[in-house]
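Write out a record, focusing on structure:
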Amino acid sequence: MPTPDARPSVLFVCVHNAGRSQMAAAFLTRLAGDRVQVRSAGSAPADTVNPAVVEALAEVGIDISAEAPKVLTVEAVQASDVVITMGCGDTCPVFPGKRYLDWELPDPAGQGVEAVRPIRDEIEKRIRVLADELTPTAKP
C-alpha cells in the first residue's frame, strides 16, 4: 500500500461546499477508496449540506448525512495535486505546479431532488474518468 504522501490528492471547491463539491468528493471516495486523498471546501461555506444532495446520493447508496461544509484554505490547495473548481470563480487561490480543472455544472442550491439527479449523474461520470486517471488499477 502506498504511503499517504504517495497518494494523489484532489480538492473539490464550490462556493458553498454544500452540493457539487460534496457529491464529487463522495463519488471519488467511493470509487478510489484510500488510494486517493479527497478534500472538499467552499469559498463561502453554507451551514449545512443541501438536503436534496444528501437524498440524491442516498439513492445511489452513498451516505453524506454526517458531512458538513468546510471553508477553503490556502493550506488545502497547497496540499492538493489536483484542484477541481465548480463555480468558485476568482476566489480560489492558484499555485504553480497544481493541476486545475474547472467543471461547469449547474448549482443545486435551492433545487429539489429531481433537479439534483442529473447534476449527480454528470458528476459521477466525470469522477469515474478522474478516478481512472489517478488510479489506473482502480475498478468501480
Summary: The longest helix spans residues 113-134. The CA atoms of residues 45 and 64 lie 16 Å apart. The beta strands are 9-14, 37-42, 82-85, 99-102.
